[in-house]
Amino acid sequence: MGKLTNLKIKRADKIGMVFFFSFVLATTLIWFFEERFNVEQWKTQPRMRYKMADDIIENKILIGKTKQDIVLLLGKAQYEITEGKDHFIYRLGKPTSFSELKEAKLIIVFENNIAVKVMQIEE
Questions:
Q1: pLDDT for 84 beyond 70
Q2: pTM of the model as a whole
Q3: Rounded CA gap, 113 and 22, in Å?
Q4: CA 119, 78, 54 angle in degrees (round to 5)?
């Protein structure tokens, strides 16, 4: 017990612990408040889709799915472009921003009827 009372934490260790706990707290809060992809919300709240786009892209939810599978999940695409590759484009709405409001779009690229790439752009 005597050794524990004499234990002193160095300044660098204190700073390291503060950064570590800050990182854990920030990561937890981001995970807790981040929107997960939800089929029902996607279809009923089109202006809020931009909140789910990160989950779709990061977790590769659509990669490997057919066009028919994606239409069942997301509904009919706004655009279908065929210029070398097939694309589906879904409007995501306008994310909140202090700068110019640009509309976000989710682009799904297909090869041989299978989704191979999903990305988000702002126009």
A1: no
A2: 0.65
A3: 45
A4: 30
